[in-house]
Amino acid sequence: MARKKDSETTAEDDVSLFRRLMSDAKPLRQMDKAPERRPSVSTRARFARQDEREVLAESLDADIDETETGAGESLHFHRPSVGRRTMRKLGRGNFSVQDEIDLHGMTVPQAKDALHEFIEECESRGYTCIRIVHGKGIGSGDRGPVIKGKVNKWLKQWSEVLAFVSARQIDGGTGAVYVLLRKNRH
């Protein structure tokens, strides 16, 4: 008679031992699950707001190549929802500027942080028209207007910005922009 290998004998012994020990075991009864609670509207709004902040911070950190912006070049941008008449009024300075920030003379990281805080504060106050003074980059030498190009990029990336256009000469000309913000939904 052929003798079984030790590993086969051990495996069969393990299986029979397990079955013998489990013969009088009874399955656990199903546990009742707690009813699923849907988050309240305020919780959703809070998380949506947090998501928006994170996206804004991420977009300001994004290193996307922007087109070169000249010192005397006018900036303009608008979302499809903004009409020509609104853009004309914005460019003529017909909207009341509710607050402004002066970024020129700052480094890019300083300007990024200051702009981020400023826009968040304006949004929380319900402001719809602001002015951003970015400067013309005259002190930047051959590099051209660094902050101006960054502001152009950052404002286009932020969903709460509906439109912006270079300011009238009396308000800073091509060294500043009027910005139209979406009305605060919260």
Explain how this protein is built.
- By secondary structure, the chain is α+β, with helices and mostly antiparallel strands.
- The protein has a domain of 105 residues: Ribosomal Protein S8, Chain: A, domain 1 (2-Layer Sandwich), CATH 3.30.1370.110.
- It contains five helices and five strands; from the N terminus they run H-H-E-H-E-H-E-H-E-E.
- The protein has a five-stranded mixed beta sheet, sandwiched between helices.
- Strand 2, helix 4 and strand 3 form a beta-alpha-beta unit.
- It starts with 5 loop residues before the first helix and ends in a 5-residue tail after the last strand.
What percentage of residues falls in helices of 4 or more residues? 40-55%
Number of helices: 5
Shape: elongated
* CATH hierarchy: architecture of the domain at 77-181: 2-Layer Sandwich
Uncertain segments: none
Largest sheet: 5 strands, mixed
- The SSE string, one letter per element, is HHEHEHEHEE
Name of the CATH first level of the domain at 77-181: Alpha Beta
| Strands, total number | 5
Structural class: alpha+beta
What is the radius of gyration? 31 Å
Across the major sheet, the strand order is 1-4-5-3-2
The average pLDDT score comes to 81
CATH topology of the domain at 77-181: Ribosomal Protein S8, Chain: A, domain 1
N- and C-termini, Cα separation: 85 Å
Strand content: 5-15%
Short characterization:
By secondary structure, the chain is of the alpha+beta class.
